Amino acid sequence: MTRSVETFRVGRVIPGDLYGRAASDQTVSIVTDALDKWFALLDDGPYSGEYAAPELVRTVSLTLDRREILCVDQCVVQLTFRSSDGSPLPAWAPGMHLDFYLPSGRSRQYSLCGDPGDLSNYTVAVRYIPDGGGGSPEMHALEEGAELVVRGPRNGFPFVPTGQAVFVAGGIGITAIIPMVRAAREVGMDWHLVYCGRSRESMPFLDEIAMWDSDRVTVRTDDVEGVPSGPTLLEPVVGGAVYCCGPPPMIECVRTAFDAFPATHLYFERFSAPPVRGGVEFEVQLVNSGTVVTVPADKTVLETIREIRPDVSYSCQQGFCGTCRVRVLSGRPEHREHRLTSDEQEQEMLICVSRSSGDRIVLDL
Q1: pLDDT per position as a tens digit, 110-165
Q2: How far is residue 49's CA from residue 24's CA, in Å, rounded to a whole number?
């Protein structure tokens, strides 16, 4: 114990007393001496793993329990998974999603849209997009009994169940929104849902939504009313928060119109890549092949590289998940994400959103 106490005191300076005398303050000296001996007692003896916190489980193995086609156009499938070992699943809240590791090796994110109170299963709904990067065809091809590994649940779209709220959903964006509306109804919030789609035949969950208070629901379809404007989407807003999930053009309309309305907060989540803003053309070199590609001002590094390397890893395309992080061997990235630490940004970048500060970027690809 004596040796431990001595190591605690290396480099320590006890301040002088309040009267300005050179001697160390007596009270501080007594207190630090007692704490040194107490910590030494706690620190004495061999380490025992039985007191350690359990390892954080970051992945869960799921088995597909049932699949159901939701839309008349048969392009949306609802998939319900249970834990492969029968144990209760980690808790989740409206707005959370799972990272699915697909059989091809791809990683894709899908919002949870089931009942947060039922931890015997997880439910997601996926729209079939033939040219959307391969994730949705794989999810649609899953058969009951198939096993997948997921990471999560994680939250990039938090919901605060108080006050007033207007929910704006576009197409498959309803999967992130519908658990929020259910929660708002349960706690008695003042809410309104604006749900848009190409046609009623393409919109999931309409049967459930039809049973809600019709005065609180607005359903719009492009084939009848045309594509809505931002002010039209926000027309029900009288205060409180706005939650929006859908395609980038819809989100951009809502963001542009938001300041003209009396809402206090805007929360949104995209289901596809955001548009590039203020981009400048630059070059990227892939070190493994020496190939140099030019990234246009209106395209991302990821989009450009995928034209010659379709196997490059990615998922969210929004600088959130980190799947596309790549080591930077030369050049100065312009970081447009908030996931990497400042130290990580010295050596890495997320190629789905980040760009170059002007020079050629050399990547470890």
Answers
A1: 999 999 999 999 999 999 988 766 689 999 999 999 999 998 898 878 899 999 99
A2: 40
Residue that has been written with the tokens 């990615």 in this structure: 314
Alpha carbon distance 189, 221 (integer Å) = 26
Buried b (16+ CB within 10 A) or exposed e, 256-279: ebbeebebeebbbbbbebbebeeb
95 vs 243: CA distance, rounded Å: 10
Determine the 3-state secondary structure of 153 from DSSP: strand
Place of tokens 């799947």: 323
pTM reported for the whole predicted model: 0.71
- What is the number of H-type helices and E-type strands within the chain? 10, 18
- DSSP secondary structure of 16-80: B-TT--SSBPHHHHHHHHHHHHHHHHHH-S---GGGSPPPPP-EEEEEEEEEEE-STTS-EEEEE
Tokens of 350: 């997320």
* Amino acid residing at 199: S
Residue 225 main-chain phi, psi, to 5 deg = -105, -5
